[in-house]
Design brief:
Helices cover 40% and strands 17% of the residues. It is of the alpha/beta class and 400 residues long. It folds into 2 domains: 141 residues, Aspartate Aminotransferase, domain 1 (Alpha-Beta Complex), CATH 3.90.1150.10; 245 residues, Aspartate Aminotransferase, domain 2 (3-Layer(aba) Sandwich).
Length: 400
C-alpha cells in the first residue's frame, strides 16, 4: 500500500526522526572508557521526568512488565500482602504477576471505566491494623480503558491512616506525557516503558525508586537476579551496567529526553491535554461514548471509545488497518469487541491528530456506524484552532 502507516495505538508510539537518527549508530563497546559520559547524565535527567530529586532511576533492558517485576521482587518477600484495584487489563496483569511471584493479593474489582477507588482503599487500609499490607498498587493510566487515576489521592489515604505500605505506580502510559510528581505524591516505585512517552522502540523498562523503597530492598526476600537493584546500584555509580545494555536505545533515550526538555515538560503535558480533548470532542460530535465513566478519569494519552450495541469493535480496528493503513487499538479482555482505542501520546502535532480523527470517521461510516460526515473532524479542528498556544511568528503575535 502506498504512503505510510498512521500509528494511533497507545504504544508503541511514533518515533521522531531525531530519535531515529540518534539510534542509527554502529554497535559499540559498552565497556569503553568514555561510555559513562553518555550514561551518567541520563540517570539525573530522568529524575525531573519522574518528578523526583532524591530517588534513583534504573534503566533495564526490558519492557514495562520487566519494570513491574523489578519493583516487586526487590522490595517484597514471599507471602507479603499487596492491595491492587482491577480497573482494566493492565492492572489485572499486574495482579496476576504478583500472584505468580508468591504474593498475597487483595484485589478490588471495579467497573472498567472507573479509576482507583479511593474510598475502598481507605476502608481496606483502615481495617489493616497490623499493617499486613506491605504494598499498595495503583495504575496511573489504565491503557485498556482510557482512565487516569488520582495517585496523590492514594498517597493522602496512606498518610491520613499513617499506613507504612509502599506505594507502587504503573506509569507506563503516563510518565513523559501526563504530569507525574513522584516525590510530591509519595510514590515509592514508578514504572515507565520506552515505547510510549519516551518515543522509542520497546526495550527499556525505566523504574523510579524512592529512598524508602531502597531501604526496603535490604530486607526483601523475593528472589531476583537480572532485575536486582543492588547490582544496578553498584554498577550505575560509575556509569556502567551489570550486563550488556541496549546502547542503541540508550542513545535514543538521550535524544528523546533532549526533545522533552526543549519543549518543556509543562508544555508537553499541556499538549497532551489539548490532543486528548480534541479527540474527546470528536467522540462527542459522533454521539459515541467513552469507556471512562466520568470526566475526572479522562486520559490525555488514550481515548477508549465504545461502539454502539450490535457492532463489533474488532471489525472497526481491522477495517481501519486493511483499508486505510490506520492502526487503532483493540479492545482487551472484558471490553473486547465493545471498544476501540485512539492513542494520542508521544510525538504528535495538530495535523496528526486531525488525520486520526478523519480516518476513524471514515472507518466508522464504512462499518455502518453512521456518524455525521465531518462532525468529529470539525469539532477537533475548531478546538485545536481555538486552543493553540500563543507564538511569535515573523515578529507578530499570533493566536487563532
Amino acid at each position: 500500500m502506498p504512503g505510510r502507516n498512521f500509528l494511533f495505538i497507545p504504544g508503541p508510539t511514533n518515533i521522531p526522526e531525531r530519535v531515529r537518527r540518534a539510534m542509527d549508530v554502529p554497535l559499540e563497546d559498552h565497556r569503553r572508557i568514555d561510555c559513562p559520559q553518555t550514561v551518567l547524565p541520563l540517570f539525573e535527567d530522568l529524575k525531573p521526568i519522574f518528578g523526583t530529586k532524591t530517588g534513583r532511576v534504573f534503566i533495564f533492558p526490558s519492557s514495562g512488565t520487566g519494570g513491574w517485576e523489578a519493583a516487586m521482587t526487590n522490595t517484597l518477600s514471599p507471602g507479603d500482602k499487596v492491595l491492587q484495584a482491577r480497573i482494566g487489563q493492565f492492572s489485572h496483569l499486574w495482579i496476576e504477576m504478583c500472584r505468580r511471584l508468591g504474593l498475597e493479593v487483595e484485589a478490588v474489582d471495579c467497573e472498567w471505566g472507573t479509576g482507583v477507588p479511593l474510598d475502598k482503599y481507605r476502608e481496606i487500609l483502615a481495617a489493616d491494623k497490623q499493617h499486613k499490607i506491605k504494598a499498595v498498587l495503583a495504575t496511573h493510566n489504565e491503557t485498556a480503558t482510557g482512565v487516569t487515576s488520582d495517585i496523590h489521592g492514594v498517597r493522602k489515604v496512606l498518610d491520613d491512616l499513617k499506613h507504612p505500605a509502599l506505594l507502587y505506580v504503573d506509569g507506563v502510559s503516563s510518565i513523559g506525557c501526563i504530569e507525574f510528581r513522584m516525590e510530591e505524591w509519595g510514590v515509592d516505585l514508578a514504572v515507565a516503558g520506552s515505547q510510549k512517552g519516551f518515543m522509542l522502540p520497546t526495550g527499556l523498562g525505566i523504574v523510579g525508586v524512592s529512598q524508602k523503597a531502597l531501604e526496603a530492598c535490604k530486607n526483601a526476600q523475593l528472589r531476583r537476579a537480572y532485575f536486582d537493584f543492588g547490582d544496578m546500584l553498584r554498577m550505575n555509580e560509575g556509569g556502567w551496567f551489570p550486563y550488556t545494555p541496549a546502547m542503541t536505545l540508550i542513545h535514543g533515550l538521550r535524544e528523546s529526553i533532549n526533545m522533552l526538555f526543549e519543549e518543556g515538560l509543562a508544555n508537553v503535558y499541556a499538549r497532551h491535554y489539548r490532543f486528548g480533548e480534541a479527540v474527546r470532542r470528536a467522540v462527542a460530535a459522533w454521539k459515541l461514548k467513552l469507556c471512562a465513566k466520568d470526566p475526572k478519569w479522562y486520559s490525555n494519552t488514550v481515548s477508549t471509545i465504545c461502539v454502539p450495541d450490535g457492532f463489533d469493535s474488532a471489525q472497526v480496528v481491522n477495517h481501519a488497518y486493511q483499508r486505510y493503513n490506520l492502526s487503532l487499538g483493540m479492545g482487551l479482555a472484558q471490553v473486547a469487541g465493545k471498544v476501540f482505542r485512539i492513542g494520542h501520546l508521544g510525538d504528535l502535532n495538530e495535523l496528526m491528530i486531525v488525520s486520526a480523527v478523519a480516518g476513524t470517521e471514515m472507518v466508522l461510516r464504512d462499518c455502518g456506524i453512521m456518524v455525521e460526515p465531518g462532525a468529529g473532524v470539525a469539532a477537533a479542528q475548531e478546538y485545536l484552532r481555538g486552543s493553540f498556544p500563543a507564538a511569535t511568528m515573523g515578529g507578530k503575535r499570533w493566536l487563532s
